[in-house]
Amino acid sequence: MNFLTIFARNLKQGPQTEAFPLGPAFTPERLRGRIEFNAATCEGCRICERVCPANAIRFAKTPDGMTFDCWHNTCVFCGNCEFYCPTDAIHQTNDWDLSHVNADKFDMVEHGLIPNQTCVECGATALNTAPMVKNAKPPLSTEEYAEVRARCPKCRAKYLKNRKVPA
Amino acid sequence: MSNQIAILLAVLLFPGGVFALAFGLAMKGVDRRVAARLQSRVGPPLLQPFFDIIKLGFKRTMVPAAANETVFLYTPLVGVVAMLVAAALVPITSVYAPDAAIGNLLVLLYLLMIPGIVLMIAGSASGSPYGAIGFSREMALMIAYEGPLVLIAAAVAIRTGMGMGGWATFSLNDIVAYQQAHGSFLFDPVMWPAVAAFCFFYPANVGIVPFDIPEAETEVLEGPLLEYSGPVLALFKIMSALKKVVVLGLGIALFFPAAPAGIVGGFLVWLVKMAVMMLVGITAVRLSMGRMRIDQAFVFFLKWPLLLAVASLAVVVVV
Amino acid sequence: MGLIPNFKNIATRSPWIYRINAGSCNGCDVEMATTALIPRYDIERLGCQYCGSPKHADIVLISGPLTVRVKDAVLRMYEEIPDPKVTVAVGVCPISGGIFRESYAVLAPIDQYIPIDVNVPGCPPRPQAIIAGVAKAIAIWRERL
Description:
heterotrimer; A: alpha+beta; Alpha-Beta Plaits; two-stranded antiparallel sheet; 5 helices; C: alpha/beta; Rossmann fold; five-stranded parallel sheet; 5 strands; metal ion binding (chain A); 4Fe4S_Fe-S-bd (chain A); iron (chain A); repeat (chain A); 4Fe-4S (chain A)
């Protein structure tokens, strides 16, 4: 007779159904959903492209700079890219509603562009990536960071090497 | 002549036809809604079965290459017509009494057998192996549950007939009138085995979970209905809705027809009885049990309901 | 005149769902079953009903990357669903191949064999996402009725 108590309980409690198609859905804060790319903080190491199990991420060199493309239709939300990204340029949002009509199939892309820039020191054309300065000691100040960022990789190394370290 | 028109109206409009169809579908809607509530879901809208029927009207009907097209397409029609006539045979106390020419328990028993036979023919005509499995299961189940039903009917008829001073009465009007005068069989200890047997029988006849073996969708992919699509499938849905009304109505007429005089009161009481029978005997049973295997169901029916029915017949004849 | 469109609106409230497993890992199938079986997502509220026979279906949910072995069966099954029908690809596998893309055993983007109407990417998608996809499919289905 256990089922009778279950019936009674269910009748008393009322439906537990979410309102979803007719109302908002419950979404956990840390749900692993759509990928979001922030070109400003990408340092161009392309580790995300390497670790992506589904080959959803692709970098390509174009005349304007380096493009980043993540096709949501093959991304499996594993979170490897976010885990390995050294500068937190890739984030998984908790946006889960990616359903779309088939005509939009190839528009489901997260697109980003790391633009080219001219090095302020040597004048060479290089990508405006975020510099890899995580381990610099002492940490760079905002002005120093901007100066490093405005240079090409070679000049960045030179800049960091010649940087006066206060005693 | 007026007699024939009255019968025609009964078949097409009030207890049969439009009313029975609407009532059966509405019952199905309530059943699904209540079932959802018991499972703490919201459930479909109350009119969902009507939506389903209308939707099926828009779909294309496909006839499989292996099927016999004529039999395949027209058998469900036979089932629906049989159920419409059957619905006109079932009396509703102080609301409707079937014409004496048709209101016979034996005719009703024959008509009640037709949906099962229709399912069997449909399943075998579809040329699908699943349909054939459904056919064999339906047949086994019918053999198992028709026996008790006939014995129950005989017990009721003999009880009524002996009470009225004769031998056996198969007139449904007489059965109802006798119970109106002498108290319902539900409260008559002599009839209790028959009532119990009927309580086992009607879930099997309307085809709900412990006994929906012929149409088990997880095992034989809805068996006989597998190959049907579109309006013809809608006919099957209509048939099962009508059958539900007929079987529940038969149960009320046989065992508990007591109702106040007057059309409104009688009808309301009838509605309440229908609702109780459906919610307790169909919805709750359907949700709380798993499906039996066909051999289990066969043995079950040959054991308990048959035993109860034989016992009721014996008790009725002896007492 | 006004009656037929009205009936069409009513008919769209009863989409019956059939799911085809085209070599899926069962992840998406579990999520699909979840939409119907778990009280929290109750897809029956929209009038949907999972049916056992392809001939009863209106909306087809396809999961899995269409493996080579299962291709013929899937195409035959798809043919058996009476018109008007709408196809929903559930999970990234039927849409692009997902992690199985470019495998020799997989004929991945399924829309080169079967016309797909709605895509629900995810590995697996959330039940809510599947319900959202079904809602989009119902909108398409209304135009086809």
